[in-house]
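Dear Dr. L.,

I hope this message finds you well. Following up on our conversation about the binding site, I have prepared a predicted three-dimensional model of the protein together with nicotinamide-adenine-dinucleotide. For your records, I am including the exact sequence and ligand specification that went into the calculation, followed by the structure tokens. Please feel free to forward this to your student if that is useful.
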Amino acid sequence: MVAKSAQTFEVKNPSTGVVLTELPVFGPDQVQAEVTRARAAGRSWAEKTVAQRCAALWPVTQAIARRTDELVETIHQENGKVGMDALSLDVGASLLVMNYFLENAPRILADEPIRLATARHRASYLTYRPKGLIGIITPWNFPFFMPAADVSMALIAGSAVVLKPSEVTPLSALLLKKCYDEAGVDPDLFRVVTGLGPTGAALIEAQPDHLVFTGAVATGRRVGVACAERLIPYTLELGGKAPAVVLEDADLDRASNAIVWGGFANSGQICASVERVYAVEPVYEALVQKVTDATQKLSVGEKGEVGSLTWPRQREIVEALVADAKQKGARVMVGGHRTGDPAGLYYSPTVLADCDHSMEVMKAEIFGPVVPMMKVKDAEEALRLANDSHLGLAGYLFTKDKEQARHFAERLEVGSVMVNDVLSCAGVPEMPWGGIKHSGLGVVRSDRGLKELSHARHINMDRVPPLERDPYWYPYTPPRQKRIRAALKRLFDDSLGGKLLRKLLA
Ligand code: NAD
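The resulting structure of the complex is given below.
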């Protein structure tokens, strides 16, 4: 995406190549002004109770629900995904996230007592306080869900928000803003700044109190450095390379259906997409056949089940990865070429068999409709290969043996594992979503995610009338030091009394 001029950029429909609109590029001064404006509105918002904030935000869900058709069309137009993906994975998932947090935030953010063993005469608790101003930067693959989920959680946590949506798909975020305005939320509390990468960088320079970034690993690294320089706390949700491991006792029908949906929904442009399959030798050929058959049945196109890719660079990446795999011996079972309206960025859903780790397609994030499959000797080889990645976001396992599933899942180096299921871990509100390795830092959604958007402040009070001074305060007289030394020795000696005292203090 290139700015048309210094002041504007174009938004295109990737299914047709038609230019949809031109939008302003916010420069650093404009971004700073929006941050200042939102921060000011955030002061009275932070004074409200969590329940009051939730009550004020409920009407937004109704505004979104009322505009479902318009939203689905806008998401489809600017992203290229088909209507069903826009409906369930963007609009539906956003409403479920909002519903969960609007209902549960007062419980999640309630004060939390801390059990004190070493200082029983005092009482401690955590209180979750608003951070102030949260900056949110989002990618193009979920043009509505990412902004809707992150913005609602930041507001519920009591902060004001400035959102910088992807320059590839900003229209859905602008429609989200319309829903907030329509619902009567203070229009200054949540602001949207449009533009390219430098607008995102300007948002960080404007010194938000927390930054939530979702996007590519390389950009995430730059964002992390920029935040660290300014001591801004940040959350990074980056790329994925989810393995799907299929063991001998798996239900192959469920596994193949899951792999096909998990690989091709949203045209494979999901950080949690099935990006590589490892199947043990006894079921490998049968699984390849089932995945191929199911893929052959998919319809591609504006009114089909698989939409277009979202921007030209993505199709170039997909084509390069498939070419490399073919050249190194992968069998193309289905797809492997462009398809559909030549004006659109369509790529045929592709299954590659007989892949191995010499091929880039098994290592780099594909972010497109390609499922590479590899035969492995056993579960241990699958685990070793699945963990042979710099990314660690999601992983999937297919087996009927729950004990085996647990043993395998706990050794898989990813943030979320689903057994006999795919993708939903990235969107179900109660599930913590976050990567390890280069897939990110921190979690979004889930009770933990909401708490990450708050300051957990510790308050400590006296439970009993306090003494004039505690034994370790001034004055540091020799008798006092002697008493403390004797007490420590007593506490950590081998006697029964020492053991009991230690238990009492832990
Ligand atoms: P991207 O990193 O190119 O862009 C993401 C956002 O960052 C855009 O809004 C962009 O304008 C902005 N940006 C670019 N340079 C910036 C800078 N220097 N400072 C601040 N902001 C800057 O990513 P993308 O291509 O839009 O998205 C695809 C990637 O996102 C994939 O790798 C995918 O796996 C990842 N992703 C991860 C998750 C997750 O939850 N982990 C979810 C969706 C997408």
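In brief: The two ends are 58 Å apart (CA to CA).

With kind regards,
A. P.
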